[in-house]
Amino acid sequence: MSAYVEIDHVDKIFALPDGGEYIALKNIELKIKKGEFVSLIGHSGCGKSTLLNIVAGLDRPTHGGAVLEGREIRKPGPDRMVVFQNYSLLPWKTVRENIALAVDTALSQLPQGERRGIIEENIKAVGLGRAADRYPHELSGGMKQRVAIARALAIRPKVLLLDEPFGALDALTRGNLQEQLMQICQANQVTALMVTHDVDEALLLSDRVVMLTNGPSAHIGQILDIPIERPRHRLEMVKHPSYYSLRNEIIYFLSQQKRAKKHQAPPVAISANSLEKINLQLGFIPLTDCAPLVVAQEKGFFKEFGLSEVTLSREASWKSIGQGVRSGRLDGAHMVAGMPLAMTIGAGGNGATAMITAMVLSRNGNAITLGRKAQEAGVRTAADFKTFLAGSTDHTLAVVHPASMQNLMLRYWLASGGIDPDRDLKIVVIPPPQMVANLKAGNIDGYCVGSPWHSWAIQEDIGYTVANDLDIWPGHPEKVLGLREDWVERHPQTHLALVKALLMACEYCDDPRNRWEIAQILAQPDYLGVEVEYLKPGFVTDYPQGFSATPPSPLAFHAFHNDRANAPGRAEGLWILTQMARWGMTPFPKNWVEILERVRRLDLYGEATRQLGWPDQEPGLSTFTLFDGIPFDPNHPLDYLQQLPLSQPVPIQEIVLDQPDSSLSLVA
What we know:
Layout: E1 5-15, E2 21-32, E3 37-41, H1 48-56, E4 63-68, E5 71-72, E6 80-83, H2 95-106, H3 112-125, H4 141-154, E7 159-163, H5 171-188, E8 191-196, H6 199-205, E9 208-212, E10 220-225, H7 234-237, H8 243-260, E11 279-284, H9 291-298, H10 301-304, E12 309-314, H11 318-327, E13 332-336, H12 339-345, E14 355-356, E15 360-363, E16 366-371, H13 372-376, H14 382-389, E17 396-399, H15 405-416, E18 426-429, H16 435-440, E19 446-450, H17 453-459, E20 463-468, H18 469-472, E21 477-484, H19 485-490, H20 492-509, H21 515-522, H22 554-557, H23 570-582, E22 588-589, H24 592-599, H25 602-611, E23 624-625, E24 631-632, H26 637-643, E25 652-656, E26 665-667
Parallel strand pairs: 3-8, 3-9, 6-7, 7-8, 11-12, 11-13, 17-18, 17-19, 22-25
Antiparallel strand pairs: 1-2, 1-4, 4-5, 9-10, 13-21, 14-21, 15-21, 16-19, 16-20, 23-24, 25-26
């Protein structure tokens, strides 16, 4: 994304009277496109207005900086205009005179007649033509705020900065002004940054909502894209299929932050038991297979291994997970299996970040779900689905992330039936909790996702399972523990403690006697926030049969520990690389051995298991097959690619791995 406004690793530290320091903002990084409307939301004291003031030039960051069109912001200027909550009108001047003061000062180079035209144009834009000669004490609160907006827009700023501009207004006035502001911004392609406490206001006006954590050391906890088409209207917004799921994500984030205030850990903690760090922030997505992290937290495994301050951060999407780990906001995370590889080689265009995974957290757990139209058409196989698609390219399936097993296995299944995933239909990325709503609304024809979001469609009677993981590739790696390579190098003992705690949690998850208890924990608002009945299929009870020969048992469908489930096999990683190359996400790396050695750290997995007194078992590079019977020989990955349906020539390049955190380059 090309940045019009860039907030570059901003810290803001205030000196305290006792000689200490208060860190208000920590490592704020944000890029805003031209014409984009971005809202900042968070609890009082999280630094929203401080950040706005830094962009306005009214305050200076302690570290980092803000940039507008390539120039660092060092002081206030007419290219940025602030609309405050308290209007800030001069009481001895009329509406017209208040606006004229700004225009005559900022645009003094223009002829007087042109300036008058600008003043009248903006008075008309906010509907104050009849009140142009009134003084502020003769205006209502809403009218005063319209004057402030008109004054700000009249000087033609590059960026409009709004600090809770409607917070003091009644609901009706606020709604009308929101509509007016939205229309003006759209008509003039205004770039805007707004501070608000109002979730509905943020959803209505914004292209993205940036959510800040609690202070001290407040940082961006989550960024939520608002993919609702424009123009928008307040009364129509609530009918959009994504509206309530988006709203719930913001509310949930704010609720989490409110609870976090009660037991907020110090920003840095060093233990006395040889661990380099004991306070960790670990990201997860609300899926059944986040169970190892939740169990390690709730059953005390983290504390057992000296990690006394672990916070689990529920994230909105896998994109947010990747950004959080890349930026250092998260120490580590529950990741889709291909993410550490994709991040290390720079697939996806986000730059390269050297990653490692020393353990697999779960295996299986996904299903391909299709909607009622496909069910009524009798679709049972990929070949059936090809017939269903015939004659139309207006079909859409959803996955959760390009490097996810959901995407790679869905594509594999489609291609086995002669369907080209990139030509015969569209595959889009949707966060897991939004899948059901989009299927119900008819926005997609189906999806591949983890539990409970696939079985939910069955229970809601809006879809069915045409194939699950055990039909396609039983025992494939699904989620892994992902951490930055440089983080592990700085915290080797902490990392081993983390792996050991999660290995213990995985063992606990694969004891069938514990599954019902775990389901009840996962159902809690802090984690998945769903009815426990939705979590049972495939986790506590047999998975709904669909068109499988037999219903998969819970221990087979959700595998966490048994049969060497936690070993990060390199052959599996290589299969992932072949599929990413097959679908054009990356060239196939000539130096795939080096990459797998770098990312899939069986040595660290082995060290952790040995310290636990467990067998140090590592899978070899043996041949295996998926459901179609085509053998994958990890010693000859290119031969395998050539055997696959719809095979195309795949570019082969060496991906140069330099030092940790350095940019990775491609060498032909």
